């Protein structure tokens, strides 16, 4: 492959990758790249052919034992020529020795299985304007629950809560993800305990909500309703794990419809996560 080289991505490259993801119909967040860079500054790779960007991948390290593959894209005109697999190999080499996860589109899932990934659950993207999401007449989310600005809580509590839903601690990423301009992060609190967390961010199309954590569907609906107030016309999308049937039932019951599907896959046994309280994953690109 004369003329093909793989390098780390610059800030400008990451904006280019965002545009490619948008063209694939993935509806990336407008400012996701800033949080992505905080997660692992060296985890984004770009393939160039004679200097022209033709493919990309993210291979992000978390802690000592986990990694996540995402943003795996070859430009349409350069597919089938081996450039994508070169990037794939480079990304997987970077995560060697770790449990690796990804969210694979339907067309690529067989290829991921051949690379040793095992299906854990499906993520279905539900999109629409929530109908009947009620945060209560007194502004709470059920008995004893209060919805507050997540920034008003000690960050250590938020990071500890997020850890229940992710294989490794990720405080730097979480701080950026919840705090970037244009985003709204809300938490559900009861007796000083966090019992829900949701973040909404502007995207190319519908505003995306992720993560959406909640102790039960009532809390999830309250957070969803409040977050949707920050989207133009209330139009939102949420990537919902079918490993939590209460989540799919809630989103369908609120009138949102399934528009997209991926499979969460891992190279080994799926990590022990609080799936019964996971109503929306954080990001299909970084987990």
For the record, give the distance between the C-alpha atoms at the N and C termini, rounded to a whole number.
32 Å
In terms of per-residue confidence, which ranges show pLDDT below 50 for 5 or more consecutive residues? 135-139
**Overall form:** globular
In terms of DSSP E residues, the strand content is: 25-35%
Q: Order of helices and strands, N to C? A: EHHEEEHEHEEHHEEEHEHEE
Put simply, the count of helices is 8
The chain-level structural class is: alpha+beta
Rg, alpha carbons: 19 Å
Largest sheet: 13 strands, mixed
User: How many strand segments?
Assistant: 13
Query: Level of helix content?
Result: 25-40%
Roughly what is the average pLDDT, rounded to an integer? 94
State the main characteristics.
287 residues, alpha+beta, 13-stranded mixed sheet, 8 helices, 27% helix, globular
Structure in a nutshell:
The protein is α+β, with helices and mostly antiparallel strands. It has helices spanning 11-23, 32-39, 83-94, 109-114, 155-163, 171-179, 217-228, 245-253, and strands at residues 4-8, 44-49, 52-62, 66-74, 99-105, 118-128, 146-149, 184-190, 193-201, 207-214, 236-241, 257-266, 278-280.
How would you characterize this protein structure?
Strands 1, 2, 3, 4, 5, 6, 7, 8, 9, 10, 11, 12 and 13 form a 13-stranded mixed sheet that branches. Strand 9 (193-201) and strand 10 form a beta hairpin. This protein is an alpha+beta fold. It has 8 helices and 13 strands. The protein is globular and about 65 Å long. 27% of the residues lie in helices and 33% in strands.
Write the layout of secondary structure elements.
Layout: E1 4-8, H1 11-23, H2 32-39, E2 44-49, E3 52-62, E4 66-74, H3 83-94, E5 99-105, H4 109-114, E6 118-128, E7 146-149, H5 155-163, H6 171-179, E8 184-190, E9 193-201, E10 207-214, H7 217-228, E11 236-241, H8 245-253, E12 257-266, E13 278-280
Parallel strand pairs: 4-5, 10-11
Antiparallel strand pairs: 1-2, 2-3, 3-4, 5-12, 6-11, 6-12, 7-8, 8-9, 9-10, 10-13
């Amino acid at each position: 492959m004369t003329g093909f080289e793989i390098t780390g991505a610059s800030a400008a490259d990451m904006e280019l990758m965002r545009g490619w993801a948008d063209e694939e119909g993935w509806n990336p967040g407008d400012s996701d790249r800033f949080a992505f860079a905080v997660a692992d500054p060296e985890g984004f790779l770009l393939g160039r052919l004679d200097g022209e960007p033709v493919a990309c991948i993210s291979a992000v390290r978390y802690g000592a034992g986990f990694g996540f593959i995402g943003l795996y894209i070859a430009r349409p005109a350069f597919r089938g020529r081996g450039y994508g697999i070169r990037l794939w190999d480079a990304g997987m080499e970077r995560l060697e020795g770790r449990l690796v996860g990804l969210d694979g589109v339907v067309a690529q899932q067989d290829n991921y299985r051949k690379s040793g990934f095992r299906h854990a659950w499906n993520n279905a993207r539900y999109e629409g304007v929530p109908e009947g999401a009620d945060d209560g007449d007194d502004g709470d989310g059920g008995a004893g629950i209060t919805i507050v600005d997540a920034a008003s809580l000690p960050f250590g509590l938020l990071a500890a809560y997020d850890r229940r839903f992710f294989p490794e601690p990720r405080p730097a990423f979480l701080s950026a993800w919840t705090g970037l301009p244009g985003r709204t992060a809300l938490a559900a609190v009861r007796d000083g305990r966090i019992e829900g967390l949701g973040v909404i961010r502007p995207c190319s199309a519908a505003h995306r909500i992720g993560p959406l954590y909640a102790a039960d569907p009532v809390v999830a609906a309250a957070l969803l309703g409040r977050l949707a107030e920050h989207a133009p016309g209330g139009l939102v999308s949420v990537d919902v794990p079918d490993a939590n049937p209460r989540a799919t039932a809630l989103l369908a019951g609120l009138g949102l419809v399934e528009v997209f599907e991926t499979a969460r896959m891992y190279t080994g046994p799926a990590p022990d996560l609080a799936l019964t309280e996971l109503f929306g994953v954080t990001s299909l690109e970084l987990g």
